[in-house]
Specification:
2 copies of one chain form a homodimer. Chain A has 463 residues and is of the alpha/beta class. Helices cover 41% and strands 17% of the residues of chain A. The two termini of chain A are 24 Å apart. At the A-B interface, helix 4, helix 7, helix 10 and helix 13 of A face helix 5, helix 8, helix 11 and helix 14 of B.
Chain lengths: 463, 463
């Protein structure tokens, strides 16, 4: 499997300079440290590199072949690759079983048979392949100047997980280890990748988007074996959704309750509702220690958002922390009389002066198992305070980071408002003297769900 | 009530040049078209304007007094305002019943009694007052250079709805008519504002964030009278959430089922789960025609996102459109053979060439009641195509806007990816030759919920 993420030599079958699907990958790989050969029946030179008519003409052994030709030429390309004795093939071309065409469904079946016989591993068809964020190998359109390295792996039956959501996640400060889009899965599937990623030292958390599995038993076995958190989005809950996945990756969505029952068996497997939730929760797992108890302490400048967080805490079966008397006294000694301390620590607009002594007391409190910090300062006054405000907030975040490190308690910031405020908080929370990354989310329910799952995983002791 | 949104003369009691709460409002109003007098017992001049020791010293009649002094001086300020015979008072100061202090709860009660006796209307305490986006009057920190005018009104027991979420919404292209934050509600409450906004010509949709009501019967009556859509977020569903609202605005959250039953009585009242949903759905109501049937047509470049949308359609009790044969034939005549048309119209990466003829046929189809357009093109290839891509996408959006206007069918775009892509789509969808605004959201479930509510409201015939 490692050949997909760390090949020494690569051939791109259907490489082209034309502005079509694959041009970005071709341009990138030809000028990368991964020795890459373009193959195109109609061109002699591609982006200044000698092109070959057929992969078999290349005077070098090939680790990985990427196939991007039209659907009708894919089968012959696969046969050529087998003869060339490549180690792995990624078929990005679409237009097989998912179209409903009997002819192309049959071709897909033939490729499947060939794969099984040859023992050469094949990813796809109908996908955008893989990315390894650490060595910067990609068969997709990845912008490594913006892509963040991290420890979240992606396995997905969808191209949008290979680029669009990575791009979104990078904007949120979320980084990745490896991604693999697996399309119609003639050979390599979620089972193989879960097995591989369980042993991958760069990966701490695995995210999986599944439209259906052909290997229920093996999926059950591998989920029982994996020791890392696995965050799963499975669609096709509805009848019309099931028909839609059939025409997307030709998958059988199956009975949704069976999947629920399957996932519920494992304390490291968590099902989520959308991609944003999937990556935010994975990011919390990737960066935070686990919860040792169920108590969430809320620090906020907004009473309404604090109250909404309380509803979520109860919904997830967690507790609002009952702080120790000494903690309450410490906080009361620094806040003005018009600030209200109910269950949540609502510092209101006094946040600036009172945050640092309060946050230290809260982390230190033996009843606090994790901290939800709801940042809700409007943009306009922040901008008015300008540079000294940033210094003030930096000092606050320094205190937050230091306390989180010292007491080893998980913390999530939920930030509300405009993009400007999000960037302001991100800048404040990124401090060169601290290696700790604190997730910054925009939804309270996702933060509370993350805490819940980190509590469940922590309790299981399977890691 | 109009005095709160359109006062001719204003006094700010507790006006100050110091960098504290209220400085922005003071600086803005003193230099606005709204004749404003600063009142401060310790200053003679504030931002170059003569300051008065007491509101009673001002040699002019005052429509609206804004009180920003510390909680202990609020009662006397209210008494002064009554003697001055102002028409309306906004008390922004916090520190009353919500703190749990018996002393300040009693002061709040006294203010309530005074309000009832004097017939002078009071908003607050513990709020940030109001904004009128059309005449640019505000008692909060509003940045009118960025704030968008629109037809959504906000009534909220929370300061964050008076600035932070407006700022976020403006980033999303969502505009407002009026906002009122009502805090502890000694006098003016949701009932008064619903009644007022129902008659307000600038307002088409009302959003309401409620922590609890003291006037259940009147709320029921006014909801029965309002002819506009009312989108409500009510928290305190949980026990700990109820305690939190008590310490925020001293509200009694009440039995959540009673609120559900109340809201369910009215076909124009919709309960939502979070603020993002509230404003996105309100924006759809404010800008789109209503649905005449339950059929949603999905146009997408991503099979997985299309399938997820199908699950949401079934969850909300809507239908996936069964397109007419002639429509399918028209689309099949322009798309390549590897594109898959199942229930959803998944144009895949061929979207660029095939979008325009497809979208026209889809809008024209008599079975289509509304269109969900899922924009899922990755950033990197878009940036590579640069200027001519934007021209291409502009042409697509022109076709979309023209079809939406011609066939009067509601349309929502859901856009995935980085901020850059969102801005790219926003720019494309904003065309000077078209007055139509198409909402651009980032969550499929919110778009489908909006369609569902617009269908229910349309069916009710109460508008």
């Amino acid at each position: 499997m490692d050949v997909f993420f760390n090949p020494k030599t690569v051939a791109i079958i259907g490489a082209s300079e034309k502005p079509k699907f694959g041009i970005g990958t071709t341009a990138y790989l030809l000028n990368s440290k991964f020795k890459t050969y373009p193959v195109n029946i109609n061109s002699d030179v591609i982006f200044g590199h000698k092109a070959y008519k057929n992969i078999k003409d290349i005077p070098d052994s090939i680790d990985l072949a990427i196939i991007m030709v039209s659907n009708e030429f894919v089968l012959q390309s696969v046969i050529d690759c087998i003869e060339k004795e490549v180690k792995g093939i990624i078929i990005e071309s679409a237009g097989f079983a998912e179209t409903g065409s009997a002819k192309f469904a049959k071709i897909q079946d033939e490729i499947e048979v060939i794969a099984r016989r040859s023992k050469i591993r094949i990813i796809g068809p109908n996908c955008i392949g893989v990315t390894n964020f650490h060595n910067e190998f990609t068969t997709s359109d990845m912008d490594f100047e913006q892509a963040l390295k991290g420890s979240i792996a992606i396995v997905a039956q969808s191209g949008v997980l290979g680029n669009i959501f990575i791009d979104w996640a990078n904007n949120q400060g979320i980084g990745f280890s490896k991604s693999a889009t697996i399309g119609n899965k003639v050979d390599v599937d979620e089972v193989d990748l879960l097995d591989y990623l369980n042993e991958d030292p760069d990966t701490k958390v695995i995210t999986l988007y599944l439209e259906g599995t052909k290997r229920g038993k093996e999926l059950r076995d591998v989920l029982g074996k994996v020791k890392k958190p696995v965050i799963i989005l499975k669609n096709g809950r509805s009848d019309i959704g099931s028909r839609a996945v059939k025409s997307h990756t030709s998958s059988i969505a199956g009975n949704d309750r069976i999947y629920d029952a399957l996932f519920n068996q494992y304390p490291n497997v968590f099902r989520v509702d959308n991609f944003y939730e999937m990556f935010n929760i994975a990011h919390a797992f990737a960066t935070q220690p686990l919860l040792r108890g169920k108590n969430v302490t809320i620090v906020t400048g907004s009473g309404s958002l604090g109250a909404l967080a309380c509803d979520e805490i109860e919904k997830q079966g967690l507790n609002l922390t009952n702080l120790e008397k000494t903690t309450i006294e410490k906080i009361k000694s620094v806040i003005p009389n018009w600030v209200s301390i109910g269950g949540t620590i609502d510092l209101g607009p006094s946040m600036f002066e009172t945050f640092i002594p309060s946050i230290k007391a809260i982390f230190q409190d033996k009843n606090t198992d994790c901290i939800l910090y709801i940042f809700s300062v409007p943009r306009v006054p922040l901008q008015r305070m300008a540079s000294f405000a940033l210094a003030g907030i930096k000092a606050q975040f320094t205190a937050l980071l230091q306390s989180a490190e010292k007491y080893e308690k998980p913390c999530i910031i939920v930030c509300f408002g405009s993009r400007w405020v999000f960037d302001f908080v991100s800048e404040g929370a990124t401090q060169p003297e601290s290696k700790l990354i604190i997730p910054i989310m925009t939804r309270i329910n996702q933060a509370i769900k993350a805490f819940k799952m980190m509590y469940e995983f922590g309790k299981s002791n399977i890691f």
